Amino acid sequence: MEKVALVMRELPFILGGVGTTVQLAVIALAMGFVIGLPLALMEVYGSRGVRWVVSTYGTLFRSVPLLVLIFIFYFIVAKVAELSNFSAAALAMGLRSAAYQSEIFRGAIQSVGTGQMTAARSLGMTRFQAIRHVVLPQALRLAIPGWGNEAAVVLKDTSFAYAIGVAELMRRAEYASARTYEPFAIFTGCAAVYFLMTFGLTRLLTRVESAYRVRT
Amino acid sequence: MSTLSPEPVKPLLDGSLKNENEKKREIVRVSGLKKSFGSLEVLKGIDLSVREGEVVVIVGPSGTGKSTLLRCINLLTEPDAGHVWVDGAEITARGADVNKIRAKTGMVFQEFNLFNHLTALNNVAIGLKVVKKIPEEEARRRAMEELERVGLSSKASSYPAELSGGQKQRVAIARALAMDPRVMLFDEPTSALDPELIGEVLEVMKKLASEGMTMLVVSHEMGFAKEVADRIVFMEGGLIVEEGPPDVMFSAPKKARTKEFLGKIGAIHGGTVVA
Q: What CATH number is given to the structural domain containing A58?
C-alpha cells in the first residue's frame, strides 16, 4: 500500500510527460502519413526508377534501429540544422514511420482489385481521378488495421526519445525513479499509463474501422 | 435537285436522307489491329466495323483474343499495331485525348467491377461527377434515371455486397449508360452469373438493343445472339474467321470450323433464350 501511495504521489509529475509523448506520437504519425502515402503510390504506380528510390528509402529506414536513428538525428542533423532535441526525435520517428506506413498503404492499394482501376478508367477517368475517387477510398479503409498497429508501435516507441533528454513520459518516470529509489513501483506505474493510452487508441481505431468498413 | 422547282419539300427530304445516313454511320472501326502479350500473339490483324444501332456478338474459343479486342477498342489495352476509331475519332492516334474518346464507350465486365465502397446510386453517379463534372444533385438525379432504366431504383442505396450477381451487373450497365456512350462493349457479361440470374441481365441488354444502342458483345449466349444480334463474328486464333447475320451463321456458315464451333456452343448455351 505504501508503494501505491508513492506511485500516486509521483503520478502527477510523470503524467506531466503525457502531453509530450502524445505530441511526439501525433507528429511522427502525421509525418509518416503525409510522406508514407505518396511513397506507397509511387511504389505502386511509379516508373522503375521511382520504385527503386522508394524501396531503397524503405529498406534504409527499416533496417536501422530507432535508437540509432534518433542519435543520428540528434547528434548530426540537429547539430547542423540547430534543431531542438524534441524536433530531432520527431523527425527520426516520422521518417521511420513513413517507411513503415508506405508498406502498409502499398499493401492496401495492391489489395484493391485491378478491376476497380480498369472500371474507373473505362468511364473516362484519368489515372489520377481513378486513384483519388476509387482506389484510395477503398485502400485507406483496408489500411486501418495495419495503420492501427503502426500507431500503437509509434506511441510506445516515443519512449526512446528519453535517451536524448526529451521530457516525455519515460524520461519523467526515470527522474521519479532516481529521486525515490523505487524503480519497480515507478516503472510499473509508467507501464500502466502506456497501457491505458495504447488500449484507448486501439479501441478508437477499431471503432473507426468498423464504421468505415467496405464489404466485398 | 432541280433549281427551277424549289418546292419546300425538298430540303426536308434532304434532311431526312441525311438523318438516315447519320443513323448508319460507323461508330467503331478497327483496322489491322495486332496485340501480343510477351511471345504470345493474341490479335493477329483484326478489321471490324460497327455501324450505329448495330448489335454485334463476338464468339469464339477462349484465349482467342475476344476480350483483348474489346479492351483495345477503348484502349484499356494498348494495341501493338493498327488503328481504332470511335465515333469518328481515332483513339490510337498519337496525342489523342484518350480519356475523352474512351468516355464515348461504355464497358461492362464479366466480374462487374462495381466500386465496392459506393452505393448503387453513387456507382452510377461517380462518372457523371468526376468525368463530366456534373453537380451532385443533377448527377444523382440522372443516376436514378439510369437505375430505373435497368429496373433497380429500389436498390439505389444498397452497396454492391448487398446485391445479387445479376443486380450488380445491371448496376454496372447503368453506370456505363450514364456516361451517354456511343457504343456499349460487353465483355462476357453473363459468364460469372448463376444460371437463374442470366435472364435479367440479357433482358436489360435486349431492351438496350431495341432502343437502338450500338453494342459489341462478347458472349456465349447463343439464344441472345440469335435473337438480338445483327451480326455474329466468329474469332479464332487471333483472327476473324467468319462473320455474318445470325441466320446465315447458324444455318449455313461458309467455313466448316464455324459450323463446328457454333454447333457445339449452341448445344450448351443455346437454351438460355429469354422470352
A: 1.10.3720.10
